[in-house]
Each structure stands twice: as structure tokens, then as C-alpha cells.
Amino acid sequence: MTITVIITSYKEPGSIGKAIETILDSKYSGYDGELKLVQISPDRETLDKGKKAAEKLSNSEKIEFKQIKDPGKGKPIALNLGLKEVEGEIIVFTDGDVYFERNAIGKIVEKFQESEKIGAVTGRPISGDPRSYMMGYFGHLFADANHYRREIDLAGATQEKSKLFVKKHKFFPMSGYIMAARSKLLDFELPEDVLVDDAYISYMIFNRGKEIAYAPEAIAYIKYPKTMADYYKQKKRSTGGYIQLWKYGVVKEETKARSPWHELQMFWFPFKYASNVREIFWSLLLLPIRTWLWLQILFEQKVLKKDFERTWVRVESTK
Q1: What DSSP line would sit under 49-61, residue for residue?
Q2: For the chain, which terminal residue's Cβ has fewer other Cβ atoms within 10 angstroms, N or C?
Q3: Domain spans of the chain?
Q4: What residues form DSSP beta bridges with 182?
Q5: Within 10 A of 290 (CB to CB), how many other CB atoms are there?
Q6: Distance, C-alpha 68 to centroid of its chain
């Protein structure tokens, strides 16, 4: 089996090397088949660092490495460029500020082999930040809350006692930090202004009658915003982007994935997740924080109608 890995990265010379090494080192990645890695970056420094890292590991006949210098007009355009270079049956997507745990790619490929009905697979993002301060704690909480939901909605987990308060939904989107799809299902271009490309791809595949599977052993370590200002910048894009998806006609009433009402189903989770008094206090703060987030999202999307360039703001503290 041949796979293609698309990695998008912008001004991330400090992290792109490790990201590429965890993909190209077959003993580490758990996949020793033919692999094509496509790095897409607009800046020369990140491209140079990526090339240097790849040259250490791309001497195998099974490995092909290609770089594309994109115009720097957003991730959707970069991904469309990468999709034109795809070879093989499976495409894996990730970012340049992310690195994979051992065997991550192998675990994703194994999941596809379980059934032809599986059209896409998402792995498990885990926060690489300390949990000892508020923003670090939030990162762990959000990552683990999404893991919890994917276990219910994608992995077919039974309704254990701890899950009784959350009903199973028909759909839950993949994470763009570590996700994959069968290449034959990606015969479309992403809208150039889409804010949540991972959710758009998830909907397109799900709407074709294919299953989205969860491989929690396929882990990607990520960084979350370290300031509240950056948190709001990121979430207004990633969470607010789900409202934007309605205009593309990919969302159905029964497959809504993000809304204030969906979050209310998980109202109890932060309090169960907290392990001490300090974390309980931080969990209490989430209610006004998330309420203010949704008020901003609704105002900017419904009233101001902010466009892609004003909404897609780089978050520096995650780099």
C-alpha cells in the first residue's frame, strides 16, 4: 500500500523538523510501505528546515519527499495544492507544529484495513503543554473532552455509566492535527474561504455514506493557546467555522456537530475532569469564557459577516 502525507506549515521552522522525522522514520511511524510526504509552506525558512530534516530519512526507495511553496493565502489553498500531488490509496493530513507518537501512522493504516466501509480515520490529539496553569489545563481538558466524544460517536463505545449523560450522535468531525482519508473520496477542492477544513472533509466523506473511524492509539502531540487573547482568536475560527459550513450545504440537521446546545450536553465534564480544588475553579471559569466566545462568534458571523482573511488570524502562542 502507498500513502501520501500532506503537512501544511507556516513560519514553523522550530517544529517542522520533528514533525517530519516522526513521519519518515519507518521504525518510529510503524509504517514501512511506500510513502510520499508533501510539505506545503509559504516561507523559505520553514521549507529549508523541512528539507534538511527530510534529507536525513528520505534516502529509502520507498520514500518520496516533495515541497510546494504556496502563495500564503490560507490553509485551504495550500491543501488544494497538496491534493494534486497525491499518490496511493490513503492520504494523511497533519500540521507542521504537531508531532506524532510512535506507531501513529501504522495505527491509522491498520484501521482502514478493518473495513471498506471506513472512508476516513482520525487519531487522538493530546496536549503537550503542562497542566499546572490555567491555559495548560484548558488544553488538556478540551483534548480529552473530544477524545471522550469520539469514543462515543465514532468508536461505537457502549453507554457505560460514565457516559449516560451524553447521547450518541450520527456524526463527529475528524481532527486536522491527525486525520486520514481514502484518496478516491477526495476528488473535490476545498472552498478557499473555509475556516474548518478538517470538518468540511469529514462532512464530505460522511455524506457519501462512508464511515469515519477513530484510532485513539494514533496520537499527535499539540500545543494550545497560552493566552486568553490567542484562545479567542483560535476558537472564533475553529468553533465559529461550523456555522460557516451551513452555506456549503454539507451540514444536515441531524449531523450538527458544534453549537451552544451541544456544549450543554458536556456541561458536567469539566467538573468530573478536575482533579483538585484549583482545577475545579478553572472549570467554573469556563462557563463565562465559553459564553463570551459564542456571543463573539454569533456577532461576527451573523452581524459583521467577517470574511476569511479577517477571521483566519495566526495564533503565535501555539508555535
Answers
A1: HHHHHHHHHTTST
A2: N
A3: 2-226
A4: 90
A5: 16
A6: 21
Is residue 219 within 8 Å of 104, Cβ to Cβ?
yes
pLDDT at residue 241, as a whole number: 85
**Spatial distance between the Cα atoms of 219 and 122, rounded to a whole number of angstroms:** 10
- Tell me the C-alpha distance between 253 and 230, whole Å: 31
176, three cell numbers: 486536522
Parallel, antiparallel, or unpaired for β 179-182 and 90-95?
A: antiparallel
For cell 494534486, what's the residue?
A: 84
Report the C-alpha dihedral over residues 93, 256, 297, 78, rounded to 10 degrees: 20
Which CATH number is 2-226's, of 3.60.120.10, 3.90.550.10, 3.30.160.20, 3.40.309.10? 3.90.550.10
Vertex 33: Cα angle to 209 and 116 (nearest 5): 20
Q: What is the pLDDT of residue 252?
A: 87
pLDDT at position 315 is 65
Q: Residue 283: how many CA atoms within 13 Å on its side-chain side?
A: 19
Cβ atoms of 170 and 251 closer than 8 Å: no
pLDDT of residue 109: 97
Position 219 scores a pLDDT of 98
Strand order in 34-41's β-sheet? Answer: 63-69, 34-41, 2-8, 90-95, 179-182, 118-127, 211-222, 99-100
pTM exceeds 0.70:
yes
Mean pLDDT per 10-residue segment, the chain (319 residues): 95 96 96 96 96 86 93 94 96 97 98 96 96 96 93 65 59 95 96 94 96 96 93 86 89 81 83 96 95 87 65 63
